[in-house]
Amino acid sequence: MNNFPLMIKSSLFDKYPELFFAFSTRDWMDYGKDPVINDDKSDLLKQKGIKKRFKSFFEYINISPDNIITQTQIHSTNINYGEVSGHFDNSDGLHTDKKNIFLTIKAADCLPIFLYDPVKKVIAGIHSGWKGSRDKILSKMISVLKENYGINSADIVAYIGPGISKEHYEVSKEIADFFSEESKELKNGKFYLDLKTDNLFQLLNCGVRRGNIEISPLCTYANSNILFSYRKEKENAGRLIGVIGLIH
Prior knowledge:
The structure is a single chain. The protein is α/β, with parallel strands linked by helices. The chain has a single domain (7-164, 209-246), classed as CNF1/YfiH-like putative cysteine hydrolases (4-Layer Sandwich), CATH 3.60.140. The protein has six helices and 15 strands. It has helices at residues 51-60, 130-134, 137-149, 173-176, 195-205, 230-233; strands spanning 7-8, 19-24, 68-71, 79-81, 86-88, 93-96, 102-107, 111-117, 122-128, 157-160, 170-171, 184-187, 190-193, 213-215, 240-246. It has a six-stranded mixed β-sheet, with no helix packed on it. Strands 4-6-9-8-10-14 form a six-stranded mixed β-sheet. It has a three-stranded antiparallel β-sheet with strand order 11-13-12. The chain is globular, with a radius of gyration of 17 Å.
């Protein structure tokens, strides 16, 4: 990580000069109690009171908002290909092989996951909470990339971004039952879910090499001074945003 806490970077992605990646902190998105920020089902760049702050972040990372793709995230396994800038409704996964088109993923406890294939020059972004993890949207994305671009899983470089940690993610038994023993813990009669471990195993099971996977140690709940946590802040939680793109 560098430039912390203004933004979070990936040490793995930093090895590829043709790849741009940045993940915001709440410094850019802290809107107080404006309820508009909590609507996760619309294009944040077009919401009143939000565009200015997002514009500032994009100016800081030197990317025009006219070159980005956003999506209405609904905890689905819906995946879309982005050829030009714009917005997708009802979507939780984006991928492209186009240069100077930047994919964005919003998060505030759910995992923001980003993929890059340096051989085929393909990028992807995934939003995965417990529903997306249960339904294996990350595994589905890798299947889509194989089908559309002929990628080799062993070439994929992956970054699992800041998300809520197992220690702070208590879930019901009904939810815990969807997950493997490695991805959950029963402690004092309560179930705790480890989304990062679940998605790590999805990557490994798809053939991604462990050395090509970086997992952020940051927990959105424990580090809510610099990150947003919906579980901790409820309606007052804003959204973090990750940006990935091919620049040359």
